């Protein structure tokens, strides 16, 4: 066990970080590409289908907070156990992560099935939109345990230093999804005479759950057959360990609240943007997809860095954990700076990728030029902040988000839009201010060093 657990604890930390992060980055980028393609296909059904899927997704992120809580907890628990060389505890934590997350997902799915229609009713009363949302949503909710467990399989492998197999799993799932989408959604496969199932929005959801189930099955078989790092057992999967399960709920709770808080702040932000008209809202929607895509490499680096830091802390190698976080922050800053330069120089071309409306493009140009440079600060903050999920000390992320979004940005947006009636440029500028505050808070928490002594 000592030989395998030393893989990421020795040698060049930069190579180690890239070894874990690059496959993860590639997998997430491909997933982001699929999400964009998926919405393009849905857009060919009808605007009602797009609206229905969008509304369901808005509701669905509420339960995704549970996935964030347990997933964040599992990163520190698995990586620290593995880094300390405790094979028995590592296996037990992996088993409990899969079982407990599936159990929580079952409970959440039951609640969502009975509350979905009333929740959707808050957003729309149009029959076609509501039908699309329900067609798409019910099957996604039914397969929620598989979705949660699929995420956990990949997280477990990454925390053990195995990033390539999760990447392959994500590639397989994305390819299957991209192929099945048009086959299930339309009467004929677009551009061919191949007959399709013509299931509309339900077909899109069906393609997603099939690819997710295949992805989970592949990862689960890998873990149950065993690797040179860990081998889980069926017996362990049917036994709950409350001591570990309690930690799975509590360690990542600040991360879950942070995700909930950030999403709620986004809803309020969109409300303020809507005061400037449809073009601004459309630009903001495009911006959201663009920023999510741009952040995919960052997510890969942060996940890789968190796993390595967790292993380093488990092995009591504080200095290596600190150096890993610094390099992750630098790498993130460089990547996002390059993306920012491209966006600043070619904002119109970037907007044209998503839309042809000249009015939306005009609004979006200023948004891109002002907001995207702030992503460099966000990337650096996330790099340094990878010490928090790695250590299990997740409160700093929560504080930085609450203060920057609710203490700074939302009040600032109210002042700009409701009191001073300034142009939309000041709305975009609020993101730079909020991201700067968030970066400062994360840096202070990193330097304070509480994470260095935190163990789970």
Which features would summarize this protein structure in a list?
456 residues, mainly alpha, 2 domains, 21 helices, 0% strand, disordered N terminus
Write up this protein.
The chain is mainly alpha-helical and 456 residues long. It has two domains: 1-251, no CATH class; 258-456, no CATH class. Helices cover 83% and strands 0% of the residues. The longest helix is centred in the N-terminal third of the chain and has 37 residues, at 47-83. It is globular, with a radius of gyration of 22 Å. The two termini are 20 Å apart. Residues 1-5 have low confidence and may be disordered. The chain crosses the membrane at residues 20-43, 49-70, 98-116, 136-157, 169-189, 201-224, 268-287, 293-315, 327-346, 366-385, 397-420, 426-446. GO terms for molecular function: antiporter activity; xenobiotic transmembrane transporter activity. Keywords: Antiport, Cell membrane, Ion transport, Membrane, Transmembrane, Transmembrane helix, Transport. InterPro entries: MATE_fam, MATE_MdtK, MdtK-like.
Give a topology summary.
Blueprint: H1 2-5, H2 13-43, H3 47-83, H4 87-121, H5 127-142, H6 144-159, H7 164-185, H8 200-225, H9 234-237, H10 242-250, H11 253-274, H12 278-294, H13 296-314, H14 318-345, H15 347-352, H16 358-371, H17 374-385, H18 387-391, H19 395-419, H20 424-448, H21 450-453
Described by the principal axes of the CA atoms, the overall outline is globular
Number of helices: 21
Strand content: under 5%
The number of distinct structural domains comes to 2
List the secondary-structure elements in sequence, H or E. HHHHHHHHHHHHHHHHHHHHH
Distance between the termini: 20 Å
Instruction: List segments where confidence is low: pLDDT < 50 over at least 5 consecutive residues.
Output: 1-5
Question: What is the makeup of the main sheet?
Answer: none
Bin the helical content. over 70%
Classify the secondary structure makeup into a structural class.
mainly alpha
Mean pLDDT equals: 85
Number of strands: 0
Rounded to an integer in angstroms, the radius of gyration calculated over CA atoms is 22 Å
